[in-house]
Design brief:
The complex is a heterodimer of chains A (380) and B (287).
Chain A: H1 2-28, E1 32-39, H2 46-65, E2 73-80, H3 85-97, E3 102-104, H4 109-115, E4 125-128, E5 143-145, H5 150-161, E6 167-173, H6 176-191, E7 195-202, H7 210-217, E8 223-227, H8 231-243, E9 250-252, H9 259-264, E10 275-279, H10 286-299, H11 307-327, H12 331-339, E11 343-344, E12 349-350, E13 363-368, E14 374-379
Parallel strand pairs in A: 1-2, 1-3, 3-4, 4-5, 6-7, 6-8, 8-9
Antiparallel strand pairs in A: 10-13, 11-12, 13-14
Chain B: H1 2-32, H2 39-55, H3 60-88, H4 93-115, E1 131-134, E2 137-140, H5 141-163, H6 165-175, H7 177-182, H8 187-212, H9 219-234, H10 239-259, H11 265-279
Antiparallel strand pairs in B: 1-2
The chains are: A alpha/beta (380), B mainly alpha (287).
Amino acid sequence: MQNTNRSWLIGVVLVAAIILGAVWYRTASPNTIKIGFVGPLTGGQAFWGEGARNMTMLAAEDINKAGGINGKKVEIVYEDGKCEAPTAIAAFQKLKASGVQILLGGHCSPETAGMVPLTKDGSVFMLAGFSSNDGAVAASDFAYRTSPDTFDMSARMVPFTVGRYKKIATISEITPFAKGYTTDFEAALKKSGVEIVAHEEFAPGSTDFRTAVTRLGASGADAIFVSPQSPITAVGVMKQIAELGIKVPVFGNTLFVSQDVFDKSGKPANMLGAFTTLPFADATGEKERALAARYKAQFGKDVPYSLYYVGASYDATNMIADALRACGQDTKCVAGKFKVMNYQGSVGQYAFKENGDLQAARWARGVIGEDGKFKLESIQ
Amino acid sequence: MEIFFQLFINSLIAAGIYGLVALGFNFLYRATKFFNLAYGVYAVIGGYAVLALGRAGVPLWAAAPLGILAAAGVGAACEKFVYARLRARRASALVQLVASIGVMTALQAVIAIIFSSEFQTLSEFAPSSTSYSIGGGVVTSVQLIIFGSTALILFGLALLLKFTLLGKAMKAVSDDEEVSKIVGINTGRVITIISAIGAGIAGWAGILVGFDTGLQPTLGLALLLKGVIAAIIGGIGSLYGGVLGALLLGLAENFGIWKIASEWKDAIAFVLLILFLIFRPQGIVKR
């Protein structure tokens, strides 16, 4: 019995020593610059986090191959924020405690909303992606984002809607992005004289929308606007609209109108012509094609969701690297660089508003054409 | 009137899925006496197994039974290597519940690593679902299969428990494991078989959900939640009760949001649960 206890004690001491050693090694290494990454790597929104992490890895690889930042290698420390504010805050604290001063993330609105207040003191500078709810980074001078807000996005939708439809029914998931988008869009439509005849919402994680959709179908709307938070919800809603025999045209946010959702919903006829608006990344451009090809070669799959949103993580890492070259890890200086940033990246051009929001230079209308193919058309 | 029929059909469709999950969950709970939160992941395993087999070119008629077997195998393995060992150490139901959260998280992560967290659907492996109009409402062939299989599995389990030696052993173990041991029943083996059957039912539910709505590694918890509510309001551990609970839950949710906003749907489910826990904790059918 005594021997067993001694073995246990030695085991525990060894494991503790290894962990402490690893932590010490990571903290103390003088030839690396640590950059934190917080994104949803598990859970229902992980498809965003995976794409962003992969793009960040590609960028870090390129930066290190080109000699690093002022001779120091970049090391990205990845943390899972699960698209939840509390988890993201815990990840932020952990990264900060390990010496991280620059953060890529969050990669969804709840993560970003949770972490932004923690950057107010300037101890950490953060550059968020995939975070679109209104004013998400406005509370801190040390937080910026590569996504436009839902107000901007929905405003771009209005000209394509007014004149085409007089009565709209909406259905949205209750998340900052999905619901925020619908709220902004409904307000803009009402101002333009479009009537909102039905409004339905559902909790995240729902899979049964039949009764909500039945009510939308009976509302007398000319079209249904769908605002989900993830493709699985988008397909669920669309499949159930089709199954219930509702024939009115549908359109929606950037997660709803995509080739993947159209195909997986069984290519319903009322989704032909469905449209959305999003920042434009020219998939035929040289840089864009090269990045997409590299992604596929390295990870064995196409860039998920949207070339702009996912590719922006590659550009974000490079923007941070440029700022660090000029500023070292002085977060005030880094924030100053972002204030006047005008960066031509691989999938877009980046300049930022006073409140840290992206000033998107190019926009596109994404539409499911009559041939059933999703196309991006550049708009201004 | 047309909306009324559609809402009634919507209620039955929801009840079909809740009932299927509640059936397997109750069957497992009768024997193990703890809330196995990994149960939802067995459903996801069934769905993803069919996805993998379908992509490998295995026809659906073979892939579906193999998917059920995969879920059953994982369920049996979890019982043998995790829960049975905990029970042998006289671990409480709470400890087993916590262990099941660990199993759920680990299995979910493995599925996400193998298949990625992206949304997948099984529709590509089957001819497109046909829609039927019944009394002004619409129902698809997949939904009819969901409803039919819930009834068939309920009937099958009832026959198994009543007319077979294995079923009688299962009932004995569910009633009192210690006494069953004393009379010579290999209780460990019986509980492993129960776990395999329960997980197999979950696997079948996951396959049907994969055709009806789609798959994601995290889908299991959402499936489990409504199934467990149905199981509790129907009478925890009661097979018939689980299906009745699912029916009541489906009707309450869908008719409840007829006149109020649909975001209250989950709140209706939980209010119903709380009402039952306060006023009829034994559920509709007392076991």
